[in-house]
């Protein structure tokens, strides 16, 4: 519902680009939602409640490790995009090893260059930290609007019109402030 096509959809502040996707992860890990479609592939029988709850709870098993990994990715992105000091002969692999040692609990594996396949480092261009901001905003939206009732049409319509419809036509801070009322 934006006036100009170049500010529609995910053409918005990087801080908000991942909010809809991350918000959907909350729905996908809520037993009330998953129970509506999770069926045995042959019999069509619904999953037992205990298995369903266990499946959904598993998403949170390594939450701290995942957060540490995201902080590492963010720090690596920042480090790779700063202006190199003159005379520096560091490779991206050297920088990755250094940042991983500082911010991540798992040791760096030598003779690898996985950062070359991590396209977000290039695509986000020193803005990967925004993924963590999107996670925070999505969690806030979930808790305030959908946690009690993920099927609330009122909450869904409010999100659609009060958040999604703006795309990048409204400053991120203003959109989050007005939508969440804080």
From TrEMBL:
Cofactor(s) annotated in UniProt:
Zn(2+)
Can you tell which superkingdom this protein's organism belongs to? Eukaryota
Q: What Pfam family is a match for this entry? A: Peptidase_M3
Could you give the cofactor binding note from the entry?
A: Binds 1 zinc ion.
Q: Which UniProt keywords apply?
A: Hydrolase, Metal-binding, Metalloprotease, Protease, Zinc
- Cite the Peptidase M3A/M3B catalytic domain residue spans from the record: 2-181
Keyword DNA-binding attributed: no
What InterPro entries does UniProt report for this protein, alphabetically?
Neurolysin/TOP_dom2, Pept_M3A_M3B, Pept_M3A_M3B_dom
What's this protein's name? Peptidase M3A/M3B catalytic domain-containing protein
Its BP terms in the Gene Ontology are:
proteolysis
Question: To which protein family does this belong?
Answer: Belongs to the peptidase M3 family.
């Amino acid at each position: 519902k934006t006036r100009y096509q170049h500010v529609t959809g995910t053409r918005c502040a990087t801080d908000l680009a991942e909010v809809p996707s991350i918000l959907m992860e909350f729905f996908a890990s809520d037993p009330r939602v998953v129970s509506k479609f999770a069926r045995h592939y042959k019999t069509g029988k619904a999953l037992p409640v205990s298995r369903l709850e266990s499946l959904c709870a598993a998403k949170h098993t390594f939450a701290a490790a995942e957060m540490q990994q995201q902080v590492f990715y963010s720090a690596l992105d920042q480090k790779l995009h700063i202006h190199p000091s003159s005379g520096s002969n560091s490779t991206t692999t050297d920088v990755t090893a250094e940042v991983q040692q500082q911010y991540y609990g798992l040791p760096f594996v030598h003779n690898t260059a996985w950062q070359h396949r991590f396209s977000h480092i290039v695509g986000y261009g020193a803005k990967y930290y925004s993924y963590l901001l999107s996670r925070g905003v999505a969690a806030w939206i979930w808790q305030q609007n959908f946690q009690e009732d993920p099927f609330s049409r009122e909450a869904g319509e409010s999100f659609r019109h009060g958040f999604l419809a703006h795309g990048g036509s409204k400053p991120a801070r203003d959109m989050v402030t007005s939508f969440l009322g804080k």
